[in-house]
Automatic annotation (TrEMBL):
InterPro entries: Peptidase_S8/S53_dom_sf, S53_propep, Sedolisin_dom, Tripeptidyl-peptidase_I. CDD domains: Peptidases_S53, Pro-peptidase_S53. Residues 1-17 form the signal peptide. Its cofactor is Ca(2+). PANTHER family: PROTEASE S8 TRIPEPTIDYL PEPTIDASE I CLN2, TRIPEPTIDYL-PEPTIDASE 1. Ca(2+) binds at D526, I527, G545, D547. The keyword Lipoprotein does not apply. It is found in: Secreted, Extracellular space. It comes from Somion occarium. This is Peptidase S53 domain-containing protein. Keywords: Calcium, Hydrolase, Metal-binding, Protease, Serine protease, Signal, Zymogen.
Amino acid sequence: MVATSVLIVSLFTLALGNPLNRRSMQLHETRPSAPEGFVKAGSASPDTTLRLRIALAQSDPAGLTDALMDVSTPDSANYGAHLTKEEVDKFVAPKPETVDAVNAWLAENGLTATKLTSAGDWLSFEVPVSKASELLDADFSVFKHEETGSETVRTLAYSIPADLKDHVELIHPTISFPNPFSQVPVFSSPIKVDTSKTNLSSDAVPASCASVITPACLQALYSIPTTRATQSSNVLAVSGFIEQFANQADLTQFLTALRPDLSPSTTFTLQTLDGGTNSQTRSQAGIEADLDIQYTIGVATGVPTVFISVGERFQDGGLEGFLDIINFLNGESNPPHVLTTSYGQNENTISSTLANRLCTAYQQLGARGTSILFASGDGGVAGSQTTRCTTFLPTFPSGCPFMTSVGATTSVPETSASFSSGGFSNVFAQPSYQSSAVSAYLTRLGNTNAGKFTPTGRAFPDVAAVGDNVEIVFQGQAGLVAGTSCSSPIFASIISLINDRLIAAGKSPLGFLNPFLYANPGAFNDITTGSNPGCNTNGFPATTGWDPVTGLGTPNFPSLLAAAGL
């Protein structure tokens, strides 16, 4: 009897020490294999620390979508009546029972989570791999990307207690993989800065613009005014990642040479998160950061510009930076009116659940009146700078229907840039605002590339701008860069200038752009030549109307201004 009692007590103690034995586990997310290019290199060290994030089920994401479209569709009675932070938070805040259930599970395992967002829909905690493997019934391993040599700790499947399936949307990083390619444009062809290319009239595009693009070329191509913006509340934000620093000395040299009508001391403000910095040591200047700052300040004349430097105080170059910057801006009482980002990755590296959660975060910011623009990618139909594919690789976040994807053109007259990524999402359905334009394109396309893409998916890019032979100053030297990384800040600058005039007229900024853009196809220069080859094909051809190379086309500032009611 005594021995039996001791045994019962021992078993009871063991059960308390391992709460997982008291819960039925259920597979929550899985992928059949690592993304192409990654191979399993071995088991992860049990002592490696994982910074895990939990996305809690939101209370009314469908309601958020309806609210966003209501304030973003031009023929809606509520067009431009953007929501407050508090109104948006109500849609995404988890229900109390969700918060209680997840926190109870963590507490049973000796863990305490930190709330990452004001709405409380994201939590975080740290555990060693050994603990994470037990907690999630997962096999965390080291995966190596063969081409770049980069390594990351991930699992191909994980489980959660069955009674939490309606409370937890995902845990990250688990089955989503980082982007092994930097997508930073290449700096080439050092040139002597030519100040004679400035102060052009809007109806004259000089021959030099066919080989070197400057702010003056853009002013001529797209009829962009040089009149200074006047509204201090109209902030344009530039995302900075992977220790890309925007250098003031490079900006000053750029403005002196190519925008002499602006003060050479014109600058930008800085925001940082995740340990981000912005070193002003010229040898540490970043090509991407210099490009983005020079072509926002250099095109959006007088618009207040902020550089948001996201550090790497998170897991390992995955999507944590994207999560953090959007959660950071969603937490601000007065977020910027425009956000441009020149980074992305292939959609197939990300779990569909994580892609949807990030897309919801973009909806939150869009509902509050922010236009979110991303470069579409630089690998044509092969996605984010890779050519090893048999079916087309859409990029993320361009597949999200609640942001604006920007493709690229080249030369004068403009034609499609062959590297301009575009296509159709395999995760997100095609939104109604683009269905007519996309249907017309697919009819013209016929059976070309059949079976290599999902024709019912969200189509991208939405628009385009010059993205080739763009002149910048980098570490004191003038040179040329290419990529959709150029196109996104250029288009963002045009939207910021329109917002300035709207606000000056007592109106709301444009906010989420796509319904407005697709409702006004005549406000664009239609690009009808070229294609975006990849995956051993010629890719998609550019044609009359929308196409998955240059979208609706490149901007015509006066026409867009008129479409905005000014």
